[in-house]
Each structure stands twice: as structure tokens, then as C-alpha cells.
Write a structure and sequence with these properties.
By secondary structure, the chain is of the alpha/beta class. The chain has 15 helices and ten strands. It folds into two domains: 184 residues, 3-Layer(aba) Sandwich (D-Maltodextrin-Binding Protein, domain 2); 130 residues, 3-Layer(aba) Sandwich (D-Maltodextrin-Binding Protein, domain 2). It is 44% helix and 15% strand. The chain has a five-stranded mixed beta sheet with strand order 2-1-3-10-4, with helices on both faces. A three-stranded antiparallel beta sheet has the order 8-5-9, with helices on both faces. It is globular.
Amino acid sequence: MKITGRLPAAAAAAALVATLGLTQARADTAADFYRGKTVTLVVASSLGASLGLYGQLVVDQIGKYIPGNPTVIIQPRPGGGGTVGVAHVFNVAPKDGTVFCLILAPSVVMPLFRDVKFDASKFRWVGSITQRPVVVSVLDNAPARTLADARKTEVILGSSGKGSETYLAPALMNEMLGTKLKIVTGYQGGADINIAMERGEVHGRMQYWGGWTSVKADWLRDGKLFHFLQYGPKIADLPNVPSFRDLVKTDEERQIVDLLEVSPNIGMAFFMAPGVPDDRYNAMRKAFEDLMKDAAFKESVVSKGLEFGPIAADELARITERAYRTPKPIIERMRDIFGFPG
């Protein structure tokens, strides 16, 4: 008898039916759990800036894709540059599948530098709506409007704290590019920093490009913003704004910028905590994937001036794994720059 290594047609069909049946059984189990429940999206920031906009759009529409169609609500947990909300979901919130989290992306690398109560390498990634290219910008009342000027004149930038990219990026600029950026911490989130800019308390901030195009499009339209540099994915609208990576000179500095760029490359990302049952995690992940394919959802995003370009959960895991393989000397150099204890 000739052996081909293939299952007979009947056996293959039976195997397919069994697999589909198991998949359906798992979906039915998740539906039974979620039916009548309330699912909470924890946003690791205040809701007044672009993170809140993205979060609310997901909350408004993802419930129809979760088996059992639960009610979905939003809960802001700002603080610590996004680490407070993430630590809450990782350690305190229920692990039954009723909680997921929209991160401030810099929190992914914080365990490499600080004693924070979570490990991003153990996140159960759900997916990301988009990458988030970054600019460091000032209003037109700033004493410096270019990177060259900022090397000569002190400029005040607002920040939500040392764990936030609003602190990390200007700290690295001061160290590697010779800028004179004074970083004022303590703001609750991006919306508060924007208000501080309007009041003249600070001159500018690190900001995701989509934050300007969605929340402060009038500042862009009226030419009120000036950009020192950009990093992460290149911004097509800013061809003449220099890239941070192109400005540094050594391999070590490029590795530092690579780690900084983990945040914009992960972007507007969602995770569930380790310990969530597989059937419920898989149901949420599929619900997110289905939402990303929904033309009405995409339109609701882009109509608000927000970026859209979904990233799969597996790719987020790969980005995180690469970050966690960063050589220890690079981590130590960055810890020194940021002023984090060893």
C-alpha cells in the first residue's frame, strides 16, 4: 500500500469538523460568561486627550463583537506616566476577562528601568489600533522654535511624570543632542499639559502626531506649533522635521533611540492580564480584530483626525520581546540619563 502522508478525505473532513466544533464550543463558553456582564476598559491616562478619544470609540463599538454582547464601559486611571493604570490591571483588577487596558505605550519598557509592579513581557496583547509617530513641539510663544535654538535657549516642557514619554524623550534630547529643555512634571495627562501650554506655564511637550491632528488641529491649521524633531514611524506631513535617530552619532545612541521608539511602534495598544482564561482572552482578541475590520469603526476614527493602521497582537509581542533583549549596558545608560535608581 502506498503511503502519502496525507489523511484520507473522510478522516481529514472529520478532523476539520472536530476542530470547528471545539472552536465553536469555546466561543459558546465565552458567550455564556459574557452575557449580561459589564466589561471595563481601563485607560491608563485621563480621557481629555487622544488616548481617551480612541478608548471611547472602542467602548462604543466593540461590545457587538464580544460573544454574549456585554455592556462595555470606560474607566480612566491616570498617573505615573501610565504605569498606575497598567499596574492596576496587571495586579488588582479581576482576571476573569471582564477587564482590559488601553496603555500609554512607554509603560511597556518601564520594567526595564524602574521597580514597577508589572512585567510587560507577560501581557496578553489584544491588538493596537495604530502606530503613533511622535513629535516634540512648542507653541509660538516659546523662546526657541527650532532644535538649534533649543540648544542655546531654555525651553520649558510639560510632563506627567518620569515614567511618561513626555519626560523620557526630552531627557534623552538633553543628554544626546545638547538641548536645554527644562522638564516640569506633575500634570495628570496630555490634556492638562495642553492647557498649561495655553496658559504659558510651559512652552511645549512631547506629543503623538495624532494627538495634534485630532485634539489641537486648530493649532496646526493656524501655524501655532513648531517641531524640534520626530521619532518612530516617519510623519509624511513633516518631511523637513529631523528624525531623532538620524541626529545621533554612535551605535549606543542608536540603540537608545531604538528602545525609545518601542512606544510609537506599539502605539494605541490594548492588553489583558496574565491569568485571564484562554477562551475569554481569545474571544476579546477576535472581537478586537473584527472591530478593526469594521468600515464604520475606521470611519469613526479617521473622521476625528486620528490615525488608523491596526497591528496584530503577535506583532506587539514580538516588539516587546525585542525590547526586553536590549543589552544591559544600554539599559544602565538610559537609567542614568533618566535619574532612575539602580
